[in-house]
Design goal:
Length: 323
């Protein structure tokens, strides 16, 4: 889908946010989201604006609705569309009203007014990128990750694709808001890690507290707690996180407390760009209590093989661990 066009999928997405879709329509939305990362990013934008709209006053909503035609005229000029498209999918009045209000706001928020550059995009590509946001929040982006935010950063809203570690500057009047994979995270001041891929989102809190919200509910996480959410998960469920492996990329810190060997080797693969194979599933569950702080991979492997009485064999970029 071209994001510049108002199409039936827009109305269906709004209907999905209102939880008024049928099972068949849910499948259409899920298939569309699975097509491209751009589709998922577009939906996250719409979801974030929908969540924000829940806090608007009736007068604000009426004003937004009154500006609807002006917004569409602006969009037509920017994207050279001949006229405002008409919705094709019949919707209940609530969904239709939400579409009329939210979609112009979505486009103007995402694309900005003509000639105006509102968005700042940080992309790490092949390096680990460290930066400071306008409010003083420091971030560390893992490789191949992207963070998007408004240039003025008035409302402290960011969107993440990939993985990042955040040390959020405290501001009780302006909670820090992060959107990723259809999940909203609200923060006052804390340090936490978020990792997303096409299927799951992993969140680990190091200090402070955060609030995690998806379309099924919300939950608060404190220091030493984490959760993993998939695309079809129901209400978020947290669990203790005694293992500190989320520092594997900034810097290379691995703290294991009864941590399965398989979890450690998964983190080592990401940090050092190698493939580590453990053929024995029992060996993958072997528990470890050890810490490594910015050490070489050879040093780490040496400790592991000596501690667990293993052999380590290299074949190109692959490392095989076995008894």
């Amino acid at each position: 889908m071209n994001q510049h066009d108002h199409t039936p999928i827009d109305d269906l997405l709004v209907k999905h946010l209102l939880r008024e879709t049928s099972s068949a329509e849910n499948r259409v939305v899920e298939e569309w989201l699975a097509e491209t990362p751009a589709n998922r990013h577009y939906y996250q934008q719409l979801q974030l604006i929908w969540e924000k709209s829940l806090h608007l006053t009736p007068s604000t909503l009426i004003e937004s609705a009154g500006d609807e035609e002006k917004a569409w005229q602006t969009l037509r000029q920017k994207f050279h569309t001949p006229s405002r498209p008409k919705p094709v999918i019949p919707l209940p009045w609530a969904a239709a009203a939400a579409a009329a209000i939210l979609l112009p706001i979505l486009f103007l928020t995402f694309f900005g007014w003509p000639g105006q550059e509102n968005t700042q995009v940080l992309s790490s590509n092949n390096i680990i990128l460290r930066d400071t946001l306008p409010d003083g929040t420091t971030i560390t982006l893992n490789t191949h990750s992207t963070l998007t935010h408004s240039r003025k950063f008035k409302h402290r809203n960011v969107e993440l694709q990939g993985e990042a570690f955040f040390q959020v500057a405290a501001d009780r009047d302006r909670p820090f808001q992060l959107a990723a994979n259809g999940i909203s995270i609200t923060v006052l001041g804390t340090a936490f890690n978020v990792r997303t891929d096409s299927a799951t989102t992993d969140i680990t809190v190091e200090t402070g507290r955060i609030r995690v919200t998806n379309r099924h509910g919300a939950i608060e996480l404190g220091a030493g707690e984490s959760l993993t959410l998939g695309p079809d998960d129901s209400r978020p469920q947290k669990h203790p996180s005694p293992t500190v492996l989320h520092h594997y990329f900034h810097p290379r810190v691995f703290e294991c407390h009864d941590t399965p060997l398989g979890q450690l080797t998964d983190a080592l693969q990401e940090a050092y760009g190698v493939h580590i194979l453990i053929a024995d599933p029992v060996l993958r569950q072997q528990k470890l209590n050890v810490s490594f702080h910015d050490e070489s991979l050879d040093r780490i492997l040496s400790v592991l093989t000596e501690t667990l009485n293993l052999t380590s064999t290299r074949k190109g970029d692959s490392i095989i661990l076995n008894k």
